[in-house]
Write a structure and sequence with these properties.
With about 850 residues, this protein is of the alpha+beta class. Among the domains are: about 160 residues, GAF domain (Beta-Lactamase, 2-Layer Sandwich), CATH 3.30.450.40; about 150 residues, Beta-Lactamase, CATH 3.30.450.270; about 180 residues, 2-Layer Sandwich (Heat Shock Protein 90); about 110 residues, Response regulator (Rossmann fold), CATH 3.40.50.2300. A hairpin with a 2-residue loop joins strand 28 and strand 29.
Length: about 850
């Protein structure tokens, strides 16, 4: 089984297995004659046994045309055969060829070696009345019937032994490090000696020998004690020896012959098992007596070996396909299970369970963005960081597998009970984040065919290697190793790597998209806030100016401006509500008109059926109505004293409701040079939010806007229901009569002073103000408080502790809030009336009177 293929006449040191393949030989075995010719068919080399095999005078052949010895018909047939060679390593074969036309039959092998053509002749040892294919076909069928690697290998070894006639046939599989194991054996039942299960070190078949086995798939040694025949001359015209890498009759190294003698073998044959272009293993055949197998039978043996290779490859392909199918199903489950709300860390348990069902392991860990989570038997976070640093030095973006981690990372020797072997799957584009599968130590005993740590020694061949003389089992306990990761497991891990990267990219894309949506929304809100603030400031300035023009006293001016600012706050509060019921459309318009054209509401005439808007449509229509009113007040019909607005509601035949805003009597209208934010809201809100339509026209007679709203957002009210729906403002039944000391908790000084003045005007002899919870509690503990007004939100805190303190002591209080829709926050407070900011004397009085009605003041 050891075949370094070294020259018999040039000492070669094989201790360095990284050397170039050694394929220059000077001898051939005695069962075949070799002739090398040039392109002109001039003999360049010939083996000395040509006289015995072919009956040709080898001494006289060098430099002579081959046609001097062979008939023209034979030469022409050889030329035709050589012309059919399809590639550089192609070997053409002829069986039972009457080379000399005298009835003697030969099996011929022909191939090209650099600038020479090599012809090898073996005398036919049997007649031509046989059919090798008929013999091999049922053997291949028996091999194909088996299901797994072990049974296929056992049947193939038996069939090959029957075909070749050797005493013993071994199936030898190479390991990842070049070592090998006998996985199947066919032998005589009376033979008690067995090689099954034995492990052989990589030095038994060095790298250069394995390279030759990939090119030349069958090697026969008919008799280890036979005399070999040298080739004459030793070198060609260029001074180089003849390359016999593909020669079927070339001799072998005396080292290998001694190796066989030590095994008590007289004849041997090695047949390569090639899978996907790589040397997977060998059929190794041994016989205790000399045994010659003719070239035709050897060709049939090659065919059987090739079929075995095909069956192994087919089973591996099926395993790969099954793995790919499981990986695809895993991919689908992971992509479905991990969404925008679940990252790899959050979904680790599910991911680990799914992967463990595909690849057997003892533990799984995830190291992602500095976070470490594990399941099953796995190292601690600190221990894993050492492994992570080691993994960062491995090839990026590739699965890393080893069953002997301590050999590569000695510092983890203390934790091999948890991670003797690892299968690391990168889950990021940079070497940083990993999903790692762990296998614990699986100590086992390897049966070596001799001591693997001392495979050879210097001996009778001088500086060259001496083969092992003992093949007794040498047992070695192998620790700190896990069960090896199979190629199928590694392929599955690579498929999982692609899936996890896709998951990470998906999550990253979703996070980026969500961040982009949040950023766009924030920019929109900032733009809207900026627009609102400018509008509010402009409107307040206009309200102050208009109120001053019509007021005859400071008190009347103060009352007018106070009422209008309160109406403005109510209108804006409608736009920020989040908890709605169906709302009358007229109520929306009335609220806006009271805020901006108080006392002139009749300048906007509503016609058509009374309608209610669903909660989904309320905010959009309130926003559009706000823009229509404010734009008209600033630029349109409501900006002077004569303009009018017709607001019509029409129920269309197709179920849509049309709202039409038509201005008249205002200043001349000109289309704007650019679309402002308010115009954009009017034009796009209804189509975007309600799937309706919007049209705006800047007519010379007045601005016009028309909106189509789907029926599902609108409910038409009967006339009597509309009348009943008209809200009446609650009357103020006087001011509350307060006594004692009051407390105002408010973080805005102006509002606090205003509330303090209102409470003092209602009878309180003193009112304390506080802007923080701590300050308010100190005031409340130091004074006997009769009534309090508490702002709900105080910057970074709420007034909840103050409310609870006052509630425990029976002190009545009113809550004030500048935010709409605070149901969740207010639910935490003790029960109390709530007043919207900015509050007025009327709204605060109403809340305080309610306290009195409830018996709380």
């Amino acid at each position: 089984m050891k075949d370094p293929f070294v020259s018999t006449d040039t000492p070669v040191d094989l201790t360095n297995c990284d050397r170039e393949p050694i394929h220059i030989l000077g001898n051939v075995q005695s069962f075949g004659a070799l002739i090398a010719i040039s392109a002109d068919w001039i003999v360049q080399h010939v083996s000395r046994n040509a006289t015995e095999v072919l009956g040709l005078p080898w001494e006289e052949m060098a430099g002579v045309p081959l046609g001097q010895f062979l008939p023209e018909a034979s030469l022409e047939r050889l030329r035709r055969k050589l012309s059919t060679a399809s590639h550089d390593d192609a070997v053409v074969r002829m069986f039972g060829f009457d080379v000399f036309g005298d009835g003697r039959l030969f099996d011929v092998s022909a191939h090209q070696s650099h600038l020479s053509f090599i012809l090898e002749f073996e005398a036919k040892s049997r007649g031509v009345e046989h059919d090798e294919l008929a013999i091999v076909t049922p053997m291949m069928r028996r091999v194909a019937e088996e299901k797994d690697l072990q049974s296929v290998s056992e049947v193939a070894a038996k069939q090959l032994r029957e075909l070749a006639g050797f005493d013993r046939v071994l199936v030898y599989q190479f390991g990842p490090e070049g070592d090998g194991t006998v996985i199947a054996e066919a032998k005589d039942e009376a033979d008690s000696e067995t090689y099954l299960g034995l492990h052989f070190p990589s030095s038994d078949i060095p790298r250069q020998a394995r390279a030759l086995y990939k090119r030349n798939h069958l090697r026969l040694i008919a008799d280890v004690d036979d005399t070999v025949s040298p080739i004459e001359p030793q070198t060609g015209p260029e001074g180089e020896p003849l390359d016999l890498s593909l020669a079927v009759t070339r001799a072998v190294s005396p080292i290998h012959l001694e190796y066989l003698r030590n095994m008590k073998v007289r004849a041997s044959m090695s047949v390569s098992i090639i899978i996907r272009g790589e040397l997977w293993g060998l059929f190794a055949c041994h016989h205790r007596a000399p045994l010659y197998i003719d070239y035709e039978r050897r060709t049939a043996i090659e065919l059987l070996a090739q079929f075995y290779s095909y069956e192994i490859e087919r089973r591996e392909a099926r395993a790969v396909a099954e793995t790919a199918d499981r990986a695809q199903k895993l991919h689908d489950r992971l992509m479905m299970g991990l969404g925008a709300s679940t990252d790899l860390v959050e979904g680790f348990r599910d991911v680990a369970r799914e992967i463990s069902n595909v690849i057997r392991c003892d533990g799984v860990a995830l190291y992602s963005e500095g976070t470490y989570v594990s399941q099953g038997t796995a190292p601690s976070e600190e221990e894993f960081k050492t492994i992570a640093r080691f993994l960062n030095t491995a090839a990026a973006s590739r699965v890393y597998a080893t069953d002997h981690l301590v050999a590569r990372l000695p510092s983890i020797a203390d934790i091999t009970d948890r991670c003797a072997g690892i299968l690391a799957i990168p889950v990021s584009r940079t070497p940083r984040d990993y999903l790692v599968l762990f296998r614990t130590e699986a100590a086992r005993q390897v049966k070596w065919a001799g001591n693997p740590h001392k495979p050879v020694e210097v001996g009778s061949f001088g500086a060259r290697l001496t083969p092992r003389k003992s093949f007794e089992i040498w047992k070695e306990d192998v620790g700190n190793r896990s069960e090896p990761w199979s190629p199928t497991s590694v392929r599955a891990a690579d498929a999982i790597r692609v899936t996890l990267l896709e998951v990470v990219l998906k999550l990253s894309d979703e996070v980026n998209a969500e961040r982009k949506r949040a950023q766009d929304q924030q920019e929109l809100l900032i733009a809207e806030l900026n627009h609102r603030v400018r509008n509010v400031l402009g409107l307040i300035r206009s309200l102050v100016s208009k109120s001053r023009e019509n007021a005859v006293s400071v008190e009347e001016f103060s009352k007018a401006i106070d009422g209008r600012i309160h109406a403005l706050a109510v209108a804006h509060d409608q736009l920020t509500q989040t908890e709605w019921r169906a709302v009358d459309f007229r109520q929306i318009i009335d609220t806006e008109l009271k805020a901006y054209v108080a006392g002139q509401e009749d300048r906007v005439r509503l016609s058509g059926p009374e309608i209610q808007l669903s909660p989904e449509a309320f905010s959009t229509i309130a926003l559009v109505s706000h823009e229509l009113v404010t734009n008209s007040v600033k630029y349109g019909a409501l900006s002077n004293s004569t303009g009018q607005v017709e607001l019509a509601v029409d129920h269309q035949a197709d179920g849509f409701f049309r709202l039409t805003w038509q201005e008249a009597g205002g200043p001349p209208v000109r289309p704007p040079e650019r679309r402002g934010f308010g115009t954009t809201l009017i034009e796009r809100s209804v189509p975007f939010d309600l799937e309706g339509k919007a049209e705006i026209e800047f007519r010379s007679g007045g601005f016009r806007a028309s909106f189509l709203i789907p029926e599902r957002f609108v409910t038409a009210l009967p006339s009597e229901a509309a009348e009943a729906a008209e809200p009446e403002a609650p009357a103020i039944a006087g001011k509350p009569d307060l006594t004692g000391v009051g407390l105002v908790v408010e973080d805005n000084l102006i509002i606090a002073m205003d509330a303090s003045d209102i409470l003092t005007g209602m009878g309180l002899k003193a009112v304390h103000t506080a802007s923080t919870v701590a300050e308010a509690l100190r005031v409340a503990e130091a004074n006997t408080i009769s009534v309090a007004v508490l702002d709900v939100n105080l910057g970074k805190e709420t007034s909840l502790p103050v409310a609870r303190f006052l509630s425990e002591r029976g002190v009545p209080f009113v809550l004030a809030s500048g935010y709409g829709g605070q149901a969740d926050t207010l639910a935490k407070f003790p029960p109390a009336p709530v007043v919207a900011k900015p509050f007025t004397v009327e709204t605060l009085s109403r809340a305080l009177l309610k306290l009195g009605e409830d018996g709380e003041a």
